[in-house]
């Protein structure tokens, strides 16, 4: 990417396209965003194409790392370290409480579901960005076309709807009717058969010699037997209970798989807008504005 931009752009091109002479696309002072904001993009008074490309790469990497951490909710801390603005890898995640259990989901249906959320979510984000990029770069009367013009295009709306349908199909194929839960219930099987012990946490169960954590079951305190969870939304996926992409916390409550998919939509759309506003700076950034609250 850096090589291609450096080969295609001159300092005069970048100035004419209204790109910044610094890398301060957000008023960031710490973590990965602070590193990006502190980057220099000029040599003398001219925008240097290579430095400019490194600036964009830094911001895009931070935003995409945040998105991956949101999708792989049970590994968010592993991916980002801290989840606030001090993260050395990711843009800060807005709302993180309650934090999903940070653990390996193992060879389970729950793990298959988490991978399908990530697969569907990443493909949707990439497809949405590509569709909007193609429109913005289309040969209109005054290219690039604005975000408002693109979103009003009926053919583009159909393309976005198709990408959305594909995302929903991918997620639902492996998740069934699982509902998001930061700390899904489990049964701590001990002894023989379905005998169990009531414990507070998975770690407490794992500390018992010979015990086995069983997902999608609970330990009946009366019979001390593992019982399967039944009913609508009975099975769970370790994920955010409130959508982390929100201007105010807690974010929207998530109680069903459809709620989870809606949160993936909200998050992908916001991050796609952030990536696009970095790319299309013409008209002072007014044609492709950054989402509210995302700096300058």
What do these coordinates show?
The model has no long low-confidence stretch (mean pLDDT 90). The protein has 3 domains: 1-93, no CATH class; 105-175 and 244-285, no CATH class; 186-228, no CATH class. The protein has 296 residues and is mainly α. Helix 4 (49-71) packs antiparallel against helix 10 (257-279), helix 6 (109-136) packs antiparallel against helix 8 (154-175) and helix 6 packs parallel to helix 10 (257-279). It is elongated, with a radius of gyration of 23 Å. It has helices spanning 2-8, 11-16, 31-37, 49-71, 76-80, 109-136, 147-151, 154-175, 202-206, 257-279; strands at 42-43, 46-47, 179-181, 186-189, 212-215, 217-219, 226-228, 236-238. Strands 1-2 form a two-stranded antiparallel ribbon. The protein has a two-stranded parallel ribbon with strand order 3-8.
In short:
By secondary structure, this protein is mostly helical. It has helices at residues 2-8, 11-16, 31-37, 49-71, 76-80, 109-136, 147-151, 154-175, 202-206, 257-279; strands at residues 42-43, 46-47, 179-181, 186-189, 212-215, 217-219, 226-228, 236-238.
Explain the layout of strands and helices.
Layout: H1 2-8, H2 11-16, H3 31-37, E1 42-43, E2 46-47, H4 49-71, H5 76-80, H6 109-136, H7 147-151, H8 154-175, E3 179-181, E4 186-189, H9 202-206, E5 212-215, E6 217-219, E7 226-228, E8 236-238, H10 257-279
Parallel strand pairs: 3-8
Antiparallel strand pairs: 1-2, 4-5, 6-7
Helix pairs in contact: 1-4, 3-4, 4-10, 6-8, 6-10
